[in-house]
Amino acid sequence: MSKEFAIIQFLPMRNTVSVVIGTQWGDEGKGKIVDLLAEKSDYVVRFHGGNNAGHTIVVNNKKYPLHLVPSGVLHSKTNCVIANGVVIDLEVLTAEIDMFIKDGIKLDGRLFISERCHLILPYHKALDLAFENARGKDKLGTTTRGIGPVLADKVSYNGIRIYELLNWDIFVEKFTFQAKIKNEILKTFNVSPIDIKKELERLSELRKIILPFIADTYQLLQKAFSENRKILMEGAQAVMLDVDFSPYPFSTGSNTIPGAVNTGAGIPVQKIGDILGVVKAYTSRVGGGPFPTELTDELGDEIREKGQEFGTTTGRPRRIGWLDLEAVKFACQVSGATEIAITKIDILSGLEKIKVCIGYKLNGKSIPYSSCGYQELAKLTPVYKEFSGWTEDLTNINKFADLPNNCQNYIKFIEDFLKIPIKLISTGPKREEYIKL
Ligand code: IMP
User: Fold this and answer.
1) How far is CA 340 from CA 276, 324, 331, in A?
2) Above 80 in pLDDT, residue 11?
3) Ligand 1 centroid vs 317 CA: distance in angstroms?
4) CB 114 within 8 A of CB 86
5) pLDDT tens sequence across 109-121
6) Dihedral, CA atoms, 333, 318, 117, 250, nearest 10 degrees?
7) Is the CB of residue 142 below 6 angstroms from any atom belonging to ligand 1?
8) Quick check: is 138 catalytic?
9) What would the pLDDT profile of 399-420 be if each residue is shown by its tens digit?
10) Other CB atoms closer than 10 Å to residue 137's CB: what's the count?
11) Which of 51, 142, 256 to mutate to test the pocket of ligand 1 (most atoms within 8 A of CB)?
12) Is the N-terminal amide bond of 249 cis, ω within 30° of 0?
């Protein structure tokens, strides 16, 4: 190979996709960030997870809780793609489609759903709940939306894809076969079996709503990419819930790291460019599992109320804690975050002291997050750095220099610790409440 040719081969590719990813346990405020970035994107793509996700966008004082439709939907020129890695509950998706249509938001020709997506079927939800109840005091705290069971079916060749909806007779056959087996399992949990005939009637109605949106999203995205269109990949949940890199089994069922852009949407890994890690200024998590920086006192309650930390999907009160930079550092490493967005910094206004976890100790020795299983995480002691707080309301500030000094110090510390530039600071729930750096 000539030297000249070799150099051309290694020139960086012009066009890349951008990825937004949560760096904690979900609910970092990714929806708002994606909504902001979506304005300049031609495509916003969901590539993993399902309606266990809940992304809230506030526009003109109206709240839109989204579970499946990508957070670019409120920008009329942005196309929305639900790619193959997403698992779909038809009932939830059709309700969302209905909500937008009633609000006058056009979806025809701009919402595309992959025929490769697996369907969350009624027996998946029944099984999720039955397993949770059977676990008793060892409940995982899943959203009971059927995520674990549908993904288990996917990898054991028992799943049913959207593709099967294209031929109703084949769908009925496959659904009936699976539902009969699942009903036997449900009986062992003493749970009523699902009514196959009734469920098929309901699914046949939902199918009609979804059919016009089914597309070959792989081809669509490849074409968009080759035409230099701007593509934004919208991560759901977060790195700390990744099925491989979380303290399993306190995980969600999918891979949540940017590698899932390849498996979940068919975008080759070398085409991934910017990876924006979203970091909430404190931590929250829903469901069970260890939480080293958890605040179980009144301060935790105060932050929960002020930050309205109640699940978008389940309404459950979220557990609250200090920012855990040891965990976030790991999340940024494993996901290759190239820039950071800080969210909900306004919620910390009014606290006299603010703590940040900068490492873990177990039996007197430092231990990195990556070496901890759920048992170690439950026993370790966080090492904290303490900051003085600020009292000012931050919601109308849109320049970094106008933030109170103590708030600036807090943010600068996060940037120095992670060694990743902070590009955006969200100072309130509304679209316009942010600082660009
Ligand atoms: P699943 O994804 O419903 O199976 O739930 C597994 C774990 O992930 C539970 O602790 C859930 O609370 C958590 N989880 C799933 N999706 C989200 C999310 O979007 N935000 C926060 N936590 C989530």
Assistant:
1) 5, 15, 12
2) no
3) 13
4) yes
5) 999 999 999 999 9
6) 60
7) yes
8) no
9) 999 999 999 999 999 999 999 9
10) 5
11) 142
12) yes
pLDDT at 1 over 90: no
The mean pLDDT value for 168-178 works out to 98
Distance of CA 288 to the CA centre of its chain: 17
What amino acid occupies position 330? F
The overall average pLDDT reported for the chain is 94
Give the pLDDT of residue 313.
Answer: 76
DSSP H or E stretch at residue 34: helix 30-38
Ligand 1 pocket check for 254: Cβ under 6 Å: no
* Residues 266, 221 contacting (CB under 8 angstroms): yes
User: Which residue out of 55, 68, 87, 143 has the highest number of ligand 1 atoms within 8 Å of its CB and is therefore the one to mutate?
Assistant: 143
pLDDT band at 211 (very low <50, low <70, confident <90, very high): very high
Nearest to 51 by CA among 118, 160, 164, 143: 143
Active-site residue 55, yes or no?
yes
Instruction: Please give the structure tokens belonging to residue 86.
Output: 């997403």
Find, among 275, 257, 416, 435, the residue nearest to 342 by Cα. Answer: 435
Q: What is the pLDDT of residues 345-366, one digit of tens each?
A: 999 999 999 999 999 999 999 9
Q: Which of 128, 252, 294, 319 to mutate to test the pocket of ligand 1 (most atoms within 8 A of CB)?
A: 252
Answer yes or no: is pLDDT of 395 > 80. Answer: yes
Domains, in order of start, for the chain: 17-114+216-436 (3.90.170.10), 118-213 (1.10.300.10)
153 lines ligand 1 (CB under 6 A): no
Q: Helix or strand or coil: residue 432?
A: coil
Annotated catalytic residue within 35, 42, 48, 55: 55
Using the structure block, give the residue that is written with the tokens 């301060």: 299
Residue found by looking up tokens 């069922």 in the block? 253
| Span from the CA of 329 to the centroid of ligand 1 (angstroms) | 21
Q: What is the pLDDT of residue 2?
A: 46
How far is ligand 1, taken at its centre, from the CA of residue 389, in Å? 31
For 14-60, the pLDDT digits (tens) are 689 999 999 999 999 998 999 899 999 999 999 999 999 988 888 88
End-to-end CA distance of the chain: 43
